[in-house]
């Protein structure tokens, strides 16, 4: 009695995300809090819902508990469906034994049966570490119109940035004739956003062939796409305009949060027609005390603010004590900041406790050399003692975790 | 000791001059920046693991239905039980009394549902009570005290002429009731806890004698003849039967103690999830002593006010001692003092509005000034 | 090409002698062993990916609400959209017309909801139509034909005096309508597809001239002046405005062809899940040419009948050409022919009941004989 | 904002279930169809819901796709909760690498974090291969009243059966002083049903100690329970009365299905106060043809019966052609049986096709020797050709599977 789905989304929730250091020590990357009340995965999931895609597989094998609990039955994203909905897909054992996911392509390969249940014509492959809003349905229309085997979303970058990306060289019609991974001398500026639509029948063929090749890394970028290109499949570029950010490093993660405070950044978080959904707690309204100054900042439910806030993002349930000053920082859920603390250019993860008078981070202008400066990071649940000083670039491990 | 709940969407004793509930159920009154009045009673029941709730509606309950949706946000979208709507004309037999006229009449129309309810005890609640009652404790006391009827009450300031002021003897048995009073008074919270069989017997009696008023017949008539006990609720409580009461209840929320009593961590108050973004404070924002919901955009001055979801306050505007409901827009340089803006109100640039602290100026839904 | 749906819970043109809908919405009529009439229109809309549905109710819609529950069984428990109830008194302004009097009046009360609906096209459906309409195909034809209004119709036997018989020219444009007729007739299915803007303009017109009747004003009055096209539904269709029509529609289900048309694999008919056990056939069961729901316990003889959920037929009982609704109990040796038992009927041991094949004997809900 | 749960259930969905042969070749044991419209796992899940337990972890690593799709968001069991609900818990990787579940105790050990989220006082451990109805809440009350560290549900068996079970020897108060695994000379008849309630704090201690012991099999029966007994923890027997059946072999699985047809078996499947929930398709009512004889059988939605049925269970969507005779058999979902087939003492798995005139199985009385007789089993999706004869005890592999 199952009905077919035109397109199924497979979200690569990825590995450890080690360039986020202490932030991912106990949390899968897509589950990291972002933007005051979201987690990274809320962006691709909400994009799916808003694009009318109601069947999403989330491929994960690393620290899935938080992600699992967070996604739950999918209700916050309207993905609690009778047929379809969101499913977490970890590796599993068969009568022939079991394998961990060897690469992005292998992760999809191992879940061919999941996909085939819905008899889709197309499969959308997404990753879990990008912040953007995108209508995948429009991309699908483009894919169909072009009659492509694969369509890859592409962002126009500057020529100098291009050497940090996977670059797609395409003809005037958008048909790709070459891939270059982080080219020293880029020939074009079409950077791959890691968002693919495949005609399922084609993808299945190449996944199967790739799996049979013991030398393959079983990776989309390294193996599947080049193999398709080499075989002469029609692969096209889908130009995307708008805000897109990879949040795979501490710096880019911090920047992406700061971007939200900039009214000129075209993410449009508040657009009622393209809401970003998230799972919420049941919290009081935010309360602002008697003697505070809050400038160019974002504050969420359940915060109690008695101190000053400049250019910062407070996630829900944060307490900020009297006399404390927070500047250009990201303060995640339920962080408790005591009195007279100074916090600058820092990321403070969920449930951390910053005791009275602690000093965390520094402004770049207060640093002696550019090398001295960097974002200070306090791990989940860590305690910074009263009066303790945490320098710029320093990282404090989460409670129960290892220092670096 | 399983209980079920019956919630009246309206108080049946509100002030006719209450503009805020002219086109919505009293239960649907927006309060405390992000809630509707019914959230408190509904969450109280859910927190006491009561998952069989009947909601008796009267008129203009559309907003209330929109708020409740499919009940998911309270985890009340259950296969059996959950929340059940009893709306006018939904189950009425031609011979049944009118649900509109009084609580007792409304109850008499739903006797078949009470009979089929699975719980042994019934909690009658009222959707416009602003209090986080611990219904588990009320039930426990009801059973242990051997009472026929338990009435939760609280020590409240100026309960107002439509409230029932209650007195008890040393053993906690009800000895006197009167309507209203000024100063601090032990005031009934319009909730009743009793055994299902007791309620059914009482309703049969009410039917026989054609009684209509719940308080008058259940409490005044039976006082001294049955064992009516009080349950003292120690936390915050307010009833919003009039506009000044409503205004005061909201302003009370600026007090952290009242707020902590109303929102204890172990009995969270659940409400409809609206997926609003966090609130933005712009360069000229000056916010002090206020409560704000998510989704606002503030570039003006806000003092001692409650700001609901998706309110915009432009540069240079001053908002003092106000309640601004969802989607209020305050233009540049406008000045508001002691004002309640119902939903979707727009105040133009430079407009000055001031109400009395006791009886604030109310702009009804959708007004543009 | 997004559409939204409006379903009328009642036909507004049913027979007063229709005992089966005296205390339930026509949409809530139990049909085909495990369905309620509304399941067909609701599933039709869901199968066409219409997830924004307004349900306009009238009286006695409690059973209907129980059936729909939180909408989960149709996957209509959505965050935005899903199924929205528009019940009497829920949104009415004092000045609004009465939802009870006619379809057009009911529509006029919900103009604000139509304005805010997200779809461009509107499908007006009726909850007591027994047909599996392919609304995607209807919509597609509507758009491609350039019609202002599209009316689905089917070639039906004896449509009855309350049905609209329609004629079209070669291009499929409506040329004539009449009420009723015997023999096989092209009969309108009381569904209408049009652009939202067309409906709003028509309702404004209806308001200006104070029109009440939908068919008379939208079809009869506008025929020839606007482009009204027909969509021919090839599958099974029935309308249950009278008891004989209801009986015949059920008996039609014994025909595998009609059943396959009504329940095609790619457009499943969804209904409320009741978690009943499979049906048990005991040692003396003799069942032929019948349809049975789950949850029954049969130890008697059943011929050419429809047996709904949780029916018990004891040893030696004979049930022939009957419709036995949920929880019917047929005692030992009872003999029934041409009988409709509404829900919860008990027929004692040895009782003999026989109705006419044309106008069956109806035992109303809960009867014990 | 999470609230505590008094008791969390952990359901060991188990390994391959190899004694069910072709039935489990492509399906995890708990996902096997049972009783006309259920699957085995519906029984413990429905027991949880009916006992008021709304948080269930399902531990699985073998062929989870079908189970995953079946359980979905938990809605059929009313376990689609905002907080709690049913969660599938497969093995996962951490920063230190990942492990498959080594044993039943290790499976729980690896999910300590899942359990701790709910801060439960008690943990209920269940297995996924038993058919019974039980109020776990009453068992919890018993556990609390006894002040036990562990309470084990026990079934009274006959002395001769006892040597096939784990036997618990207890004093007059029900306090266990000895475990015996399949004793040759049983001292008592309290057989363990594999249903445990533990005080979580105690269980956590013993799980952690057990994990640290490299010699342990990490198994509840072999390691955890004896260790607790040896350490002098109070462990009590909870006497259960009612129907209970382990369906771990082809014979016991067939018998348990046949038991449903016996009105004397006290399972009470139809009890409206203790419904067994299941995920359903959207199917027509069952239709019975003109010339059939159906005796002492169970039939589900969507069946079209034109043949004769004796002492059999038809799952939903089965077609039975004219002239065919089915006796003492279990016919699972959507099986198509042609005309003039003879099916006796057989189990036919989902989606199998039995063509006209096929003969499957034999009655014991038609067999020459008792050794010849046994249940014939047709695997999922297998095709039995027109006129083909499948003897008693024979097994036909599922479509795409291996023969034995």
SSE topology:
The complex is a heterotetramer, with 2 copies of chain A (404 residues) and 2 copies of chain B (369 residues).
Chain A: E1 7-12, E2 33-34, E3 38-39, H1 42-50, E4 55-59, H2 64-71, E5 85-89, E6 93-94, E7 97-98, H3 104-109, H4 112-116, E8 122-127, E9 130-132, H5 136-146, E10 150-156, E11 166-170, E12 176-181, E13 190-199, H6 200-212, H7 220-230, E14 235-240, E15 244-246, H8 250-259, E16 286-288, E17 294-295, E18 297-299, E19 304-305, E20 308-310, E21 313-314, E22 319-320, E23 325-327, E24 330-331, E25 336-337, E26 342-344, E27 346-348, E28 353-354, E29 359-360, E30 376-378, E31 383-384, E32 389-390, E33 395-396
Parallel strand pairs in A: 1-4, 1-8, 4-5, 10-14, 16-19, 17-20, 18-21, 19-22, 20-23, 21-24, 22-25, 23-26, 24-27, 25-28, 26-29, 27-30, 28-31, 29-32, 30-33
Antiparallel strand pairs in A: 2-3, 6-7, 8-13, 9-15, 10-13, 11-12
Helix pairs in contact in A: 6-7
Chain B: E1 3-8, E2 30-31, E3 35-36, H1 38-47, E4 52-56, H2 62-68, E5 82-86, H3 103-109, H4 111-116, E6 121-126, E7 129-131, H5 135-145, E8 149-157, E9 164-168, E10 174-179, E11 184-188, E12 192-195, H6 196-209, H7 214-220, E13 228-232, E14 237-239, H8 243-252, H9 256-262, E15 279-281, E16 286-288, E17 290-292, E18 297-298, E19 301-303, E20 306-307, E21 312-313, E22 318-320, E23 323-324, E24 329-330, E25 335-337, E26 339-341, E27 346-347, E28 352-354, E29 361-363
Parallel strand pairs in B: 1-4, 1-6, 4-5, 8-13, 15-18, 16-19, 17-20, 18-21, 19-22, 20-23, 21-24, 22-25, 23-26, 24-27, 25-28, 26-29
Antiparallel strand pairs in B: 2-3, 6-12, 7-14, 8-11, 8-12, 9-10
């Amino acid at each position: 009695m199952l009905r077919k789905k035109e397109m199924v989304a497979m979200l690569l929730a990825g590995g450890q995300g080690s360039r986020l250091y202490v932030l991912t020590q106990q949390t899968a990357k897509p589950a990291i809090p972002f933007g005051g009340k979201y987690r990274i995965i809320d962006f691709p999931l909400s994009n799916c819902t808003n694009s009318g895609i109601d069947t999403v597989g989330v491929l994960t094998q690393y620290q899935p508990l938080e992600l699992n609990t967070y996604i739950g039955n999918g209700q916050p994203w309207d993905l609690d469906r009778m047929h379809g909905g969101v499913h977490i897909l970890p590796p599993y054992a068969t009568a022939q034994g079991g394998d961990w996911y060897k690469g992005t392509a292998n992760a999809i390969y191992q879940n061919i049966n999941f996909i085939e249940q819905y008899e889709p014509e197309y499969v959308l492959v997404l990753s879990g570490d990008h912040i953007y809003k995108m209508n995948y349905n429009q991309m699908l229309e483009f894919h169909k119109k072009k009659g492509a085997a694969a369509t890859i979303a592409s962002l126009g970058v500057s020529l100098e940035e291009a050497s940090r990306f996977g670059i797609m060289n395409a003809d005037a019609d958008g048909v790709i004739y070459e891939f270059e991974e982080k080219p020293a001398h880029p020939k074009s500026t079409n950077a791959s956003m890691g968002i693919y639509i495949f005609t399922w029948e084609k993808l299945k063929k190449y996944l199967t062939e790739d799996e049979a090749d013991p030398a393959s890394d079983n990776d989309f970028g390294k193996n599947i796409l080049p193999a398709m290109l080499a075989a002469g499949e029609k692969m096209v570029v889908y130009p995307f305009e708008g805000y897109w950010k990879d949040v795979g490093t501490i710096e880019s993660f911090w920047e992406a949060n700061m971007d939200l405070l900039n009214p000129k950044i075209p993410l449009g978080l508040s657009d009622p027609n393209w809401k970003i959904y998230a799972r919420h707690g049941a919290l009081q309204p935010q309360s602002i005390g008697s003697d505070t100054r809050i400038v160019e900042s974002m504050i969420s439910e359940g915060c109690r603010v008695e101190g000053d806030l400049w250019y910062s993002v407070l996630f829900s349930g944060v307490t900020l004590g009297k006399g404390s000053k927070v500047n250009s920082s990201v303060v995640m859920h339920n962080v408790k900041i005591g009195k007279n603390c100074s916090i600058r250019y820092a990321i403070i993860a969920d449930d951390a406790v910053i005791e009275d008078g602690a000093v965390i981070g520094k402004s770049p202008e207060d640093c002696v050399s550019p090398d001295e400066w960097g974002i200070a990071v306090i791990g989940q649940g860590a305690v910074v003692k009263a009066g303790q000083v945490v320098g710029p670039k320093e990282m404090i491990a989460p409670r129960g975790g290892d220092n670096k | 000791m399983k209980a079920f709940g019956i919630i009246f969407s309206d108080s049946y004793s509100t002030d006719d001059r209450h503009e805020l509930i002219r086109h919505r159920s009293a239960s649907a009154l927006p309060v405390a920046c992000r809630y509707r009045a019914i959230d408190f009673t509904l969450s109280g029941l859910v927190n006491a693991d009561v998952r069989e709730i009947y909601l008796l509606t009267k008129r203009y309950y559309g907003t209330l239905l929109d708020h409740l949706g499919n009940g998911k946000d309270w985890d009340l979208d259950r296969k059996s039980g959950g929340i059940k709507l009893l709306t006018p004309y939904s189950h009425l037999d031609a011979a049944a009394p009118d649900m509109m006229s009084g609580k007792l009449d409304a109850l008499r129309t739903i006797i078949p549902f009470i009979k089929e309810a699975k719980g042994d005890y019934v909690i009658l609640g009222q959707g416009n009570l602003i209090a986080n009652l611990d219904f588990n404790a009320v039930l426990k006391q009801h059973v242990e005290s051997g009472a026929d009827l338990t009435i939760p009450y609280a020590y409240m300031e100026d309960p107002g002429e439509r409230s029932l002021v209650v007195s008890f003897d040393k053993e906690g048995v009800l000895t006197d009731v009167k309507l209203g009073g000024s100063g601090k008074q032990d005031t009934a919270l319009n909730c009743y806890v009793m055994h299902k069989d007791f309620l059914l017997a009482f309703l049969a009696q009410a039917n026989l004698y054609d009684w209509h008023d719940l308080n008058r017949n259940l409490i005044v008539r039976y006082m001294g003849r049955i064992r009516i006990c009080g349950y003292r609720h120690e936390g915050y409580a307010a009833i919003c039967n009039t506009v000044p009461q409503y205004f005061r209840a909201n302003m009370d929320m600026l007090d952290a103690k009242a707020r902590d009593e109303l929102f204890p961590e172990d009995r969270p108050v659940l409400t409809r999830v609206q997926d609003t973004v966090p609130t933005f404070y712009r360069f000229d924002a000056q916010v002090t002593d206020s409560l704000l919901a998510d989704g606002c955009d503030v570039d003006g001055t806000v003092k001692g006010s409650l700001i609901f979801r998706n309110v915009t306050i432009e540069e240079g505007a001053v908002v003092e001692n106000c309640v601004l409901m969802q989607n209020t827009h305050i233009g540049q340089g406008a000045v508001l003092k002691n004002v309640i803006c119902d939903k979707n109100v727009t105040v133009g640039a430079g407009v000055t509005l001031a109400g009395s602290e006791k009886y604030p100026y109310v702009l009804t839904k959708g007004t543009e000034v």
